[in-house]
Structures are given as structure tokens and as C-alpha cells.
Amino acid sequence: MKQLLFIFCMLFLFNCSSKNSDEITEELPIIDSSYFPPLNSDLWETKTLTELNWNETELQFLLDFLEEKNSKGFIILHNGKIVVEAYFNNHTASNNWYWASAGKTLTSTIIGIAQDRNEININNKVSEYLGTGWTSAPLEKENLITCKNLLSMNSGLDDSLGDSVSASNLEYIADAGSRWAYHNVYVKLQDVLATAANTTWKDYFNSNLRNKIGMNGSWTNLNNLNVYWSNTRSMARFGLLISNYGKWENNQIVSENFITEATNTSQNINKAYGYLWWLNGKSSYHLPSSQLEFNGALIPNAPNDMFAALGKNDQKIYIVPSKKLVIIRMGESADSSNFALSSFDNDLWEKINNVIN
């Protein structure tokens, strides 16, 4: 009798265990891993608006708006796959266009890669790499400036003296870390990288970023500043890398820790700025060429967790982690010429929301 009772108890426990295991399996979320397009191919998988339950009737209004606003290329990725891709105003998928200041984020990412490889440390003084005298600031003030200050736009150098980053044009106005100002001095990070890694900026960029994610494009020197040019899909590839926290398929191109730092507030003055990335959803923000603080989110119509690469004349990379979106816009200025952010951002997000919500 005891043996029968024992067998009955064991069977009961087994059945309960099996049932609980099934229930647990059913409750586990389905992981929708990101898709990555092949490196050396024009193939790129797509999704339809119907699959995502998006509003197809609003898509044409969005495309008409983009064309009217001087756009050239536009892409929406969802989880890596193309949902919308359109070209306007005699531009094609194979044409290259400039990133302008949206390309600052390429510099940020390369600096992250170099730090991961222990080639630089962003907390080190810039003069440790470039030597003293790279600015015209007093030596004790120049030695306050770290690579992180250049990433965060709080070097304390005068931003009102034009685009040149020659030593004579880099004048002291405040101690590093005490003043936020949008400034081309960030390009000195490219010299830091070349010196620290004993190579050229372009070679390091190509071998450690561009080629590893299948981008096209190249750097062009304009007014002593390196400007990146590529097709729209290459901009989307870069956005996809960042949206996956620096990982491309099974290859960690730049550490997740660095991307997390880069896409969060980097200093206590402009809450909407990371390491050359603009951040939405903060309580206040500063804009280029201004010391004013504005209350509210950078782009009110965009999701709060959105962060962006923004370039002159409305070059855009929007990344929205909560919605698994990467959105690219290339083209001429939508309205009047601008440094980075414009009213076009908010208007564009109104149209995007009508499609994706």
C-alpha cells in the first residue's frame, strides 16, 4: 500500500511539474531580435505597414510633406527592417549626401571604440595627446579641457569666433565644464584619435566602423572640417548599430557601456545633450549659438526616449528604443538654413505619429 501511495504521489508531482513548466513557457515573452542587412549586398529585408498595424492612409501625407520640405532620402526601420523608403527631388538610393553635424555622432562612436581598445581615455586632458598650445587659452585653462569636455560641448572655449579650430581661434571664455556651447572644437577629437592610434582618422574610421557595418561613403574636408557623405541606407546602417547599443549581429563594434553614456545627459548644463547626441524627453535644453535655457522637451511630438543626430539643413537620425525605430531624413533645409534643430523636427514627428500610431 505504501508503495502504491508513493507511486501516486510521484505521478501527481510530475504532472504538476509538467503543467507549471508549460505555463511558464507560455508566459515567456517572444524575443523579436533585430535584423541586420548583409554587409556586401543591396538586399535589405522589409516589413509592411499592415504587419505593424500602422495607418497606411497617412503614409502619403507624410511623403508629400517630406517632398514639399526639400527632402532627398527618407527611411523608417522597425527592428532593423525597412518599412518606408522614399527618395525625392531627383535623389536616388545610390546618391550620396552630406551628414553635416549629424556626423558628430560618428566621431563620438569612434572615440568610444578607441576607448574600448585602451587607445585613449576620455577623462584625459586633450593636451596629453595633442601637446600644449592647441588653443590660445592660458595654459592652466587649456589643461582643464578633457576629451570628455569636447564630447559634451562644455570645453569653455569661445563659440562666437567662427568655424575655424586653429589655435588662434580657440579662445578661453570660461573654465571647462562650467559653460555649454555648441562648438566645432569637437573635431580635435579626430586629431586625438590619429595621434593616439598612430594612424589617420579616415583609415581608423573605415577599418573600425564603416567596413564592419557595410556603410558606403567618405570624409570630405570642407573649410578645414571633415564632413561625411554617404547614401541614405548607410546612415540607416549606422542608426541601426546604435539602436542595438553598439552591436552588429554578434559583433560588439563599440561597447554598450559607452553607447549608454553617449545617449544620456553628459553634463549638468544642457540636459538634452549626451556625447554629441541630442536627447529628447528632458526637462530643459539649450540650442546652438545661445546661452538661454528652454523648458520642456527638445521635440515635444517625438517619444520621450528618442535620441538623435542632428545636422545642418535638417540631416536627421532619430532613434526610438521603445518603438524599435530608426528614422533617417536627408536633404536640403526644410525651411530656412539652420544649425541642427528646427521647427521641422516637431512638424515631421506629427506626420510620423499619424502613420505609426
What does this structure look like?
Pfam families: Beta-lactamase. Residues 74-330 form the Beta-lactamase-related domain. InterPro entries: Beta-lactam-related, Beta-lactam/transpept-like, Diverse_Enzym_Activities. α2 runs antiparallel to α11 (343-356) and α3 (104-116) runs parallel beside α7. The model is unreliable at 1-31 (pLDDT under 50). The protein has helices at residues 2-27, 59-68, 104-116, 127-130, 139-142, 147-152, 188-197, 201-213, 232-243, 256-262, 343-356, and strands at residues 71-78, 81-87, 97-98, 218-222, 225-230, 247-248, 251-252, 278-279, 284-285, 294-295, 307-311, 315-320, 325-331. The chain is α+β, with helices and mostly antiparallel strands and 357 residues long. The protein has a single domain (56-356), classed as DD-peptidase/beta-lactamase superfamily (Beta-lactamase, 3-Layer(aba) Sandwich), CATH 3.40.710.10. The chain is built from 11 helices and 13 strands. The strands form 4 sheets. It has a 6-stranded antiparallel β-sheet with strand order 2-1-13-12-11-8, sandwiched between helices. Strands 3-5-4 form a 3-stranded antiparallel β-sheet. A two-stranded antiparallel ribbon has the order 6-7. A hairpin with a 2-residue loop joins β1 and β2 (81-87).
Amino- and carboxy-terminal Cα gap: 65 Å
Tally of separate helices: 11
Secondary structure tally: strands: 13
CATH topology annotation: Beta-lactamase
Biggest β-sheet: strands ordered side by side in the sheet:
2-1-13-12-11-8
Report helical residue fraction.
Answer: 25-40%
Assign an overall shape.
Answer: globular
Average of the residue pLDDT scores: 91
Domain Beta-lactamase-related: 74-330
InterPro entries: Beta-lactam-related, Beta-lactam/transpept-like, Diverse_Enzym_Activities
Keywords: Hydrolase
Protein name: Serine hydrolase
